[in-house]
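Repro:
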Amino acid sequence: MTVLLKLEDAAKFIGAYWLSLYLGYAGWVFFVWLLVPDISMIGYLFNTKVGAAVYNTAHHQGLAIAVTAVGFYFAVPHVTLAGIILFGHSAMDRMLGYGLKFSDNFKHTHLGWIGKK
């Protein structure tokens, strides 16, 4: 993955953190909830196809934006924060080289293979 893409995702991550602060949440709240989307890896207990589907749903930036928008529209700050955290988590993962998963192998992502080549 190129440095430019990593920088873009770093900016998204920082933006998500900043938005959580802008909503009035303490800085630590964002980081306490940041790894919760990885619970979606539980789908891999069934098989790689189910695992990839569940994981990709929880890590889709479009879904994160939709959740944020719903929370904002209905004035439910906790839902807005959940969407921001989903977005920030996804950006962090992509910044670190973890992408959306293919159904053949957990380490096969849209950004390439995770780990040693």
